Amino acid sequence: MTDKFEGVATGLTSPADTAFAVVPSNDTDLPTVTRGLYVGVSGDISLVMRDGSEAVLANVQASSALALRIRRVKATGTTAQNLVGLA
Questions:
Q1: pTM for the complete prediction?
Q2: Is 69 buried (19+), middle (13-18) or exposed (0-12) by CB count in 10 A?
Q3: 59's torsion region: left (phi>0), alpha (psi -120 to 50) or beta?
Q4: Which residues, including other chains, have CB under 8 Å from residue 27's CB and lie 6 or more apart?
Q5: Alpha carbons 46 and 7: distance in angstroms, whole number
């Protein structure tokens, strides 16, 4: 398959080219810091940002794609489901 953009550097505003299932954990970081997070099922998301700061996003709607640099999604306080990390 041809990729017209194969030689172009990827930036933070570029579309994601990697996706992975996010398993919330209080202790384990994601395999890579995200550029985005897709939410499949509505709920709250307790997260640790790239810089180590923490936040809880309340009532995130299903099918939301959030532009966030996340290093961990915590199990405690996360009720949203079917999370996908985008990098």
A1: 0.91
A2: middle
A3: left
A4: none
A5: 36
